Amino acid sequence: MVKSQVETVLGAVDAEDLGITLPHEHVVMDVSYYTTPPTNDEEREKYHAPITMENLNWLRHNLYKSKVNVSIYNEEEAVIADLKAYKQNGGATVVENTVVGINRDVQKMVNISRASGVHLVCGTGYFVDAVIPGDVKSNSVEKITETLISEINEGIKLKDCVVKTGIIGEVGTSWPITDFEKRSLRATAIAQVQTQTPVMLHPAEDPKAPFEVLRLFQEAGGDAKRTVMAHMDYVFPKDEQVLAFADEGAFIEYDFFGSEISYLVPYMSDLQRIEKIIKLIDQGHADKILISHDIHACHNLTKFGGIGFSHILDYSVPRMLQLGVTQANIDKMIVGNPKAWLTYY
Predict the structure, then answer these.
(1) CA-to-CA separations, 289 to 79, 246, 284, 332, in angstroms, rounded
(2) Which of the 8 DSSP states describes residue 74?
């Protein structure tokens, strides 16, 4: 089945109108669970300090040691400004991957989409076990499935509208994968089959994780060809690892473009990302590559000296062209492949 329309927070839009699409971003999110608690007075002072020019360099190397940095939940105006810039640069659509556990607020998504003029596709589902509310963790596969299908088919009721979710995800998993996360994966697979909705999966950092996540998902009936495995940037540092996973059939996503933070975690640089992508293209996987920024905290926003939503268009695409990636393959990565995924092609 090919869907002629895709659900956004402002209603269904024609697939042909999706245009340039960022498949993995956040416009409302809180990752406070990921912060490193301060252990002395100096750390406590930095933990609570506002973001300034004076501490910006420190922040870029200590992203999750700042309480102020880890939430963009109350930065609507800054997000809207960056989305407007993205639209002015030719961008049209953003897939918003905030789900239960990381402060999903669909009403704010509606407000941001209206103000920015950018299509926002909202997700349903659950993030990693560590942030799932206690009253949800005991839910059965059947109960989780029922919730997912309801948000896809019936929608989420707000004060002035009903929002239908356009994807399932990002569905979070830890390593080892917990019992709740296994139930969440099974429910995701069942809901995908019943509703023909695209899926976004978030693996842990271990190179074995994407293979195991996909195995569990497929055993429950999930369709790899309609599914994205996120965060190739930190999961597969070696070429042979990502090339082996590419043969599994899922879309593969490099979604930390603009994050040059190898001192903090083993993320690759943009140049390394592009080199991996070129190898994937050379091996015949151009139709399965997605790229994004995973905007999720204040340091990502231009208000705080960050990259905003236009970094790929401003910097990554020109660099790819310089390195020999054809315009046709770039168009696949930023228009054709997201459209194929979102329309269940």
Answers:
(1) 26, 9, 11, 8
(2) T
What residue ranges in the chain does DSSP mark as E strands?
Answer: 5-8, 11-14, 20-25, 91-96, 119-124, 156-157, 162-163, 167-172, 199-202, 227-229, 251-254, 289-291
Q: Which of 195, 197, 10, 200 is nearest to 92 (CA)?
A: 10
Q: At what angle do helices 141-153 and 179-195 cross, to 10 degrees?
A: 40
On whether the CB atoms of residues 86 and 308 are closer than 8 A, the answer is: yes
Amino acid at 98: T
Number of H helices, E strands in the chain: 15, 12
Determine contact, residues 282/292, Cβ cutoff 8 Å.
no
Compute mean pLDDT per 10 residues along the chain, 345 residues long, and list them.
Answer: 92 98 98 90 96 93 92 96 98 98 97 98 98 96 98 97 98 98 98 98 97 98 98 94 97 96 75 97 98 96 97 98 98 98 91
The answer for residues whose C-beta is within 8 angstroms of residue 255's C-beta and 6 or more apart is: 23, 24, 230, 231, 232, 233, 290, 291, 292, 293, 294
pLDDT at residue 1 in the model: 67
Closest CA to 24 of 84, 114, 98, 96: 96
Read off the pTM. Answer: 0.97
For residues 288 and 341, give the distance between their C-alpha atoms in angstroms, rounded to a whole number. Answer: 9
